[in-house]
Amino acid sequence: VQLVESGGGWVQPGGSLRLSCVFSGRMFGVKEMGWYRQAPGKQRDLAAAINFENTTRYGDSVKGRFTISRDNAKNTLYLQMNSLKPEDTAVYYCNAIRGTTFWGKGTLVTVSS
Question: In angstroms, what CA-CA distances link 29 with 22, 55, 56?
Answer without folding.
Answer: 17, 16, 18
